[in-house]
Write a structure and sequence with these properties.
Blueprint lengths: L2 H21 L1 E2 L1 H8 L3 H9 L6 E3 L2 E5 L13 H7 L6 H9 L2 E6 L2 E3 L1 H6 L5 H8 L5
Antiparallel strand pairs: 1-3, 2-3, 4-5
Helix pairs in contact: 2-3
Amino acid sequence: MGDSDVGRQMVTSAQADLAEQIRNSNSVEETATLLQIDPSRVRRRLRDHALYGFKLGAATRIPRWQFTSQGTPLPRLRAVLEALPNDLHPLEVAGFMTTADPDLTVGNEQVSPREWLEAGANAAPILELADAIDTW
């Protein structure tokens, strides 16, 4: 397999991952309905890092990974979002939040930062992981 084939596979994989992120996200209006608030309050939460969103053309998409199974924002989400570097790509943010990490365990099981927060655990270990992102 040549370099161009590997590059093409990487681009195709990234496109599929981004398409998946779009499918697993809500519009501002859908998020407002979920949270039972006005869309202007959703936009304010995005500006204040209380929610995470990414631009898709002129629209903002809000990934569903940041909500609990009850439809509320994850506990301590704002602290984690504020700790993440501002220049992360949406796929990097999603990967960070949804990939199990060996430093986070509940019982004997490795969990993702998302699962860790939903379980009500202290955000400090996730904040440390977020601080280390620049060294990856």
